[in-house]
Amino acid sequence: MTNLEKYKRAFVLNFRVKEEDLPGLEYMGIIQWDSVGHMDLIADIESAYGIQMDTKDVLDLSTYEKGIKILSEKYGVNFDE
Amino acid sequence: MITKLTSQKTICNSYLIEEDGFVVIIDPGQDGVVEAEIDKNGWTPELILLTHEHFDHIDDLEQVRTKYNVPVVACRICSERLGDPKTNLSVIADILSYYKTGVIAGEKSPRITCRPAEITYEDEHEMEWRGHRFSFVRIPGHSPGSVLITMDDEYVFTGDYMLLDDETTLRLRGGDPEAYENIAIPIMQSIPNGMKVCPGHGPSYVKGEENEPH
Q1: Model-level ipTM above the cut of 0.95
Q2: Cβ-count burial of B214 within 10 angstroms (0-12 exposed, 13-18 middle, 19+ buried)?
Q3: Among residues B67, B49, B56, which one has the least CA distance to residue B31?
Q4: A45 — contact with chain B (CB < 8 Å)?
Q5: Residue B171 is nearest to which of A36, A58, A59, comparing CB atoms?
Q6: Domains of chain B
Q7: Which CATH fold would you assign to the domain A3-75?
Q8: Any CB–CB contact under 8 A between A28 and chain B?
Q9: Over the stretch B183-193, which tens digit does the pLDDT of each residue have?
Q10: Is the pLDDT of residue B213 over 60?
Protein backbone atom coordinates (compact mmCIF):
# COMPACT_ATOMS: atom_id res chain seq x y z
CA MET A 1 0.00 0.00 0.00
CA THR A 2 1.44 3.40 -0.94
CA ASN A 3 1.61 6.28 1.52
CA LEU A 4 -1.18 8.04 -0.34
CA GLU A 5 -3.35 4.94 -0.16
CA LYS A 6 -2.71 4.71 3.59
CA TYR A 7 -3.65 8.36 3.97
CA LYS A 8 -6.87 7.98 2.02
CA ARG A 9 -7.72 4.82 3.92
CA ALA A 10 -7.55 6.67 7.24
CA PHE A 11 -10.19 9.11 6.03
CA VAL A 12 -12.39 6.54 4.33
CA LEU A 13 -12.49 4.18 7.31
CA ASN A 14 -12.92 6.85 9.97
CA PHE A 15 -15.45 9.02 8.22
CA ARG A 16 -17.13 6.42 5.99
CA VAL A 17 -16.73 8.60 2.91
CA LYS A 18 -15.83 7.63 -0.64
CA GLU A 19 -12.39 8.30 -2.05
CA GLU A 20 -13.84 10.65 -4.64
CA ASP A 21 -15.21 12.82 -1.83
CA LEU A 22 -11.81 13.37 -0.20
CA PRO A 23 -10.56 16.40 -2.21
CA GLY A 24 -11.77 19.52 -0.46
CA LEU A 25 -12.89 17.64 2.66
CA GLU A 26 -12.43 19.81 5.74
CA TYR A 27 -12.69 19.64 9.52
CA MET A 28 -16.31 20.15 10.60
CA GLY A 29 -17.31 19.94 6.94
CA ILE A 30 -19.05 16.65 7.62
CA ILE A 31 -20.64 15.45 10.81
CA GLN A 32 -18.12 12.62 11.24
CA TRP A 33 -15.10 14.95 11.16
CA ASP A 34 -15.62 16.65 14.49
CA SER A 35 -13.15 16.76 17.38
CA VAL A 36 -13.68 13.10 18.27
CA GLY A 37 -13.43 12.02 14.64
CA HIS A 38 -10.30 14.12 14.31
CA MET A 39 -8.62 12.29 17.17
CA ASP A 40 -9.39 8.95 15.59
CA LEU A 41 -8.09 10.16 12.24
CA ILE A 42 -4.83 11.35 13.76
CA ALA A 43 -4.39 8.11 15.69
CA ASP A 44 -4.67 6.14 12.44
CA ILE A 45 -2.40 8.48 10.49
CA GLU A 46 0.27 8.29 13.20
CA SER A 47 -0.03 4.54 13.31
CA ALA A 48 0.14 4.24 9.50
CA TYR A 49 3.41 6.16 9.25
CA GLY A 50 4.93 5.36 12.66
CA ILE A 51 5.09 9.01 13.68
CA GLN A 52 3.95 11.17 16.59
CA MET A 53 2.68 14.53 15.43
CA ASP A 54 3.04 17.80 17.31
CA THR A 55 -0.24 19.06 18.69
CA LYS A 56 0.05 22.22 16.60
CA ASP A 57 0.27 20.12 13.45
CA VAL A 58 -2.66 18.01 14.60
CA LEU A 59 -4.71 21.17 14.91
CA ASP A 60 -3.44 22.52 11.57
CA LEU A 61 -4.50 19.37 9.77
CA SER A 62 -7.88 20.84 8.98
CA THR A 63 -8.34 19.75 5.37
CA TYR A 64 -7.53 16.66 3.35
CA GLU A 65 -4.96 18.61 1.34
CA LYS A 66 -3.33 20.28 4.36
CA GLY A 67 -2.68 16.87 5.84
CA ILE A 68 -0.65 15.82 2.83
CA LYS A 69 1.37 19.03 3.01
CA ILE A 70 2.07 18.73 6.75
CA LEU A 71 2.97 15.07 6.58
CA SER A 72 5.28 15.46 3.62
CA GLU A 73 6.99 18.67 4.72
CA LYS A 74 7.31 18.02 8.47
CA TYR A 75 7.32 14.26 8.84
CA GLY A 76 9.01 13.14 5.65
CA VAL A 77 6.10 11.12 4.33
CA ASN A 78 6.64 10.64 0.61
CA PHE A 79 3.38 10.83 -1.31
CA ASP A 80 5.05 10.58 -4.73
CA GLU A 81 6.10 6.94 -4.43
CA MET B 1 -11.01 8.85 55.26
CA ILE B 2 -11.31 9.51 51.54
CA THR B 3 -8.99 12.00 49.87
CA LYS B 4 -9.79 13.29 46.40
CA LEU B 5 -6.87 14.41 44.24
CA THR B 6 -7.16 16.12 40.87
CA SER B 7 -4.39 16.14 38.29
CA GLN B 8 -4.26 19.23 36.12
CA LYS B 9 -3.37 17.70 32.75
CA THR B 10 -6.86 16.45 32.06
CA ILE B 11 -8.60 17.45 35.31
CA CYS B 12 -8.86 13.82 36.32
CA ASN B 13 -9.77 12.67 39.82
CA SER B 14 -7.99 10.01 41.84
CA TYR B 15 -9.14 8.85 45.27
CA LEU B 16 -7.23 7.56 48.27
CA ILE B 17 -9.10 5.60 50.92
CA GLU B 18 -7.10 5.58 54.13
CA GLU B 19 -7.47 3.27 57.10
CA ASP B 20 -4.89 3.23 59.91
CA GLY B 21 -2.15 4.53 57.62
CA PHE B 22 -2.87 2.02 54.84
CA VAL B 23 -4.51 3.12 51.62
CA VAL B 24 -6.40 1.90 48.60
CA ILE B 25 -5.81 3.92 45.46
CA ILE B 26 -8.66 4.37 43.01
CA ASP B 27 -7.17 5.38 39.64
CA PRO B 28 -3.54 6.55 40.01
CA GLY B 29 -4.20 9.40 37.57
CA GLN B 30 -1.52 11.81 36.36
CA ASP B 31 1.02 14.41 37.42
CA GLY B 32 2.32 12.40 40.38
CA VAL B 33 -0.49 13.68 42.61
CA VAL B 34 -1.18 10.30 44.20
CA GLU B 35 2.45 9.57 44.92
CA ALA B 36 2.98 13.02 46.44
CA GLU B 37 -0.01 12.68 48.77
CA ILE B 38 0.97 9.19 49.91
CA ASP B 39 4.55 10.21 50.62
CA LYS B 40 3.50 13.42 52.36
CA ASN B 41 1.37 11.44 54.80
CA GLY B 42 3.67 8.46 55.12
CA TRP B 43 0.88 6.09 54.07
CA THR B 44 1.34 2.53 52.87
CA PRO B 45 -0.61 1.62 49.72
CA GLU B 46 -2.05 -1.89 49.62
CA LEU B 47 -4.27 -1.99 46.53
CA ILE B 48 -4.88 -0.11 43.29
CA LEU B 49 -8.42 -0.29 41.90
CA LEU B 50 -9.14 0.86 38.34
CA THR B 51 -12.39 2.32 37.06
CA HIS B 52 -11.30 1.93 33.45
CA GLU B 53 -8.38 1.79 31.06
CA HIS B 54 -8.13 5.33 29.70
CA PHE B 55 -4.77 7.08 29.85
CA ASP B 56 -5.81 9.95 32.08
CA HIS B 57 -6.71 7.48 34.82
CA ILE B 58 -3.64 5.24 34.46
CA ASP B 59 -0.84 7.59 33.41
CA ASP B 60 0.98 7.05 36.72
CA LEU B 61 -0.06 3.41 37.15
CA GLU B 62 3.27 1.77 36.39
CA GLN B 63 5.21 4.26 38.50
CA VAL B 64 2.92 3.86 41.49
CA ARG B 65 2.51 0.08 41.38
CA THR B 66 6.26 -0.39 41.03
CA LYS B 67 7.27 2.08 43.71
CA TYR B 68 4.94 0.65 46.34
CA ASN B 69 4.80 -2.93 45.03
CA VAL B 70 1.01 -3.15 45.20
CA PRO B 71 -1.36 -5.31 43.16
CA VAL B 72 -3.79 -3.82 40.66
CA VAL B 73 -7.44 -4.86 40.54
CA ALA B 74 -9.32 -4.43 37.24
CA CYS B 75 -11.90 -6.22 35.16
CA ARG B 76 -10.37 -8.54 32.58
CA ILE B 77 -11.18 -6.35 29.62
CA CYS B 78 -9.73 -3.28 31.29
CA SER B 79 -6.63 -5.26 32.19
CA GLU B 80 -6.17 -6.43 28.60
CA ARG B 81 -6.47 -2.89 27.26
CA LEU B 82 -3.93 -1.32 29.62
CA GLY B 83 -0.96 -2.31 27.50
CA ASP B 84 -1.99 -0.84 24.15
CA PRO B 85 -1.72 2.94 23.56
CA LYS B 86 -4.58 2.65 21.08
CA THR B 87 -6.98 1.11 23.57
CA ASN B 88 -5.86 3.14 26.57
CA LEU B 89 -6.12 6.16 24.24
CA SER B 90 -2.69 7.55 25.07
CA VAL B 91 -2.23 7.94 21.29
CA ILE B 92 -4.64 10.87 21.46
CA ALA B 93 -3.58 12.19 24.85
CA ASP B 94 -2.17 15.51 23.64
CA ILE B 95 -5.02 16.49 21.39
CA LEU B 96 -7.63 15.39 23.94
CA SER B 97 -5.84 17.40 26.59
CA TYR B 98 -5.91 20.40 24.26
CA TYR B 99 -9.64 20.02 23.67
CA LYS B 100 -10.24 19.88 27.42
CA THR B 101 -7.92 22.66 28.55
CA GLY B 102 -7.29 24.82 25.47
CA VAL B 103 -3.57 24.58 26.16
CA ILE B 104 -1.04 22.92 23.90
CA ALA B 105 1.27 20.76 26.00
CA GLY B 106 4.90 21.79 25.96
CA GLU B 107 6.10 18.23 25.57
CA LYS B 108 4.57 15.32 23.74
CA SER B 109 2.87 12.88 26.08
CA PRO B 110 4.40 9.43 26.14
CA ARG B 111 2.53 6.46 24.75
CA ILE B 112 1.44 4.51 27.80
CA THR B 113 1.87 0.77 28.08
CA CYS B 114 0.97 -0.83 31.39
CA ARG B 115 1.24 -4.42 32.51
CA PRO B 116 -2.00 -6.34 33.05
CA ALA B 117 -3.66 -6.24 36.46
CA GLU B 118 -2.64 -8.81 39.06
CA ILE B 119 -6.26 -9.45 40.10
CA THR B 120 -8.92 -9.61 37.38
CA TYR B 121 -12.61 -10.46 37.19
CA GLU B 122 -15.23 -10.66 34.48
CA ASP B 123 -18.39 -8.61 35.03
CA GLU B 124 -18.72 -8.54 38.81
CA HIS B 125 -16.45 -8.90 41.80
CA GLU B 126 -16.42 -8.35 45.54
CA MET B 127 -13.57 -8.00 47.98
CA GLU B 128 -12.88 -6.98 51.58
CA TRP B 129 -10.19 -4.60 52.69
CA ARG B 130 -9.59 -3.60 56.32
CA GLY B 131 -13.26 -3.74 57.24
CA HIS B 132 -14.51 -2.17 54.01
CA ARG B 133 -16.41 -4.00 51.32
CA PHE B 134 -15.79 -3.19 47.67
CA SER B 135 -18.19 -4.28 44.92
CA PHE B 136 -17.32 -4.02 41.26
CA VAL B 137 -19.68 -4.15 38.29
CA ARG B 138 -18.63 -3.78 34.66
CA ILE B 139 -20.52 -1.03 32.91
CA PRO B 140 -19.60 -0.78 29.20
CA GLY B 141 -20.57 2.19 27.07
CA HIS B 142 -17.83 4.72 27.70
CA SER B 143 -15.21 1.99 27.31
CA PRO B 144 -15.35 -1.81 27.32
CA GLY B 145 -13.35 -1.98 30.54
CA SER B 146 -15.33 0.52 32.59
CA VAL B 147 -16.61 -0.46 36.02
CA LEU B 148 -18.44 1.12 38.92
CA ILE B 149 -16.78 0.52 42.29
CA THR B 150 -19.02 0.68 45.34
CA MET B 151 -17.62 0.93 48.85
CA ASP B 152 -19.71 -0.08 51.88
CA ASP B 153 -22.96 0.76 50.05
CA GLU B 154 -22.08 4.36 50.83
CA TYR B 155 -19.70 5.56 48.11
CA VAL B 156 -19.66 4.80 44.40
CA PHE B 157 -16.62 5.55 42.26
CA THR B 158 -17.92 6.04 38.77
CA GLY B 159 -14.93 6.76 36.52
CA ASP B 160 -16.23 8.63 33.49
CA TYR B 161 -19.91 8.00 34.26
CA MET B 162 -22.33 10.15 36.26
CA LEU B 163 -20.30 13.31 35.80
CA LEU B 164 -22.03 16.32 37.29
CA ASP B 165 -20.86 18.90 34.76
CA ASP B 166 -20.09 16.93 31.63
CA GLU B 167 -21.59 14.22 29.47
CA THR B 168 -20.19 10.72 29.37
CA THR B 169 -18.42 10.41 26.05
CA LEU B 170 -19.49 7.37 24.06
CA ARG B 171 -17.67 8.17 20.83
CA LEU B 172 -14.08 7.51 21.85
CA ARG B 173 -12.64 4.25 20.57
CA GLY B 174 -14.26 1.38 22.42
CA GLY B 175 -17.36 3.45 23.14
CA ASP B 176 -20.67 1.67 22.69
CA PRO B 177 -23.93 3.68 22.73
CA GLU B 178 -26.02 0.52 22.66
CA ALA B 179 -24.27 -0.94 25.71
CA TYR B 180 -24.63 2.40 27.44
CA GLU B 181 -28.36 2.39 26.81
CA ASN B 182 -28.99 -1.25 27.64
CA ILE B 183 -26.47 -1.96 30.38
CA ALA B 184 -25.00 1.22 31.80
CA ILE B 185 -28.12 3.29 32.27
CA PRO B 186 -30.06 0.58 34.18
CA ILE B 187 -27.06 0.00 36.45
CA MET B 188 -26.70 3.71 37.17
CA GLN B 189 -30.43 4.07 37.77
CA SER B 190 -30.27 1.25 40.32
CA ILE B 191 -27.88 3.21 42.53
CA PRO B 192 -29.97 4.37 45.47
CA ASN B 193 -30.40 8.02 46.33
CA GLY B 194 -28.16 9.09 49.18
CA MET B 195 -25.07 7.33 47.82
CA LYS B 196 -22.02 9.56 47.58
CA VAL B 197 -20.95 9.70 43.95
CA CYS B 198 -17.21 10.12 43.33
CA PRO B 199 -16.65 10.59 39.60
CA GLY B 200 -13.41 10.57 37.64
CA HIS B 201 -13.87 14.19 36.60
CA GLY B 202 -15.55 17.11 38.31
CA PRO B 203 -17.16 17.43 41.72
CA SER B 204 -18.47 14.70 43.98
CA TYR B 205 -22.11 14.82 45.01
CA VAL B 206 -24.87 12.90 46.75
CA LYS B 207 -27.19 11.07 44.37
CA GLY B 208 -30.64 12.57 44.53
CA GLU B 209 -29.50 15.82 46.12
CA GLU B 210 -28.05 17.45 42.99
CA ASN B 211 -29.45 18.04 39.56
CA GLU B 212 -29.43 14.74 37.76
CA PRO B 213 -26.14 14.37 35.91
CA HIS B 214 -25.91 13.69 32.21
Answers
A1: no
A2: exposed
A3: B56
A4: no
A5: A36
A6: 2-206 (3.60.15.10)
A7: 1.10.1200
A8: no
A9: 999 999 999 99
A10: no
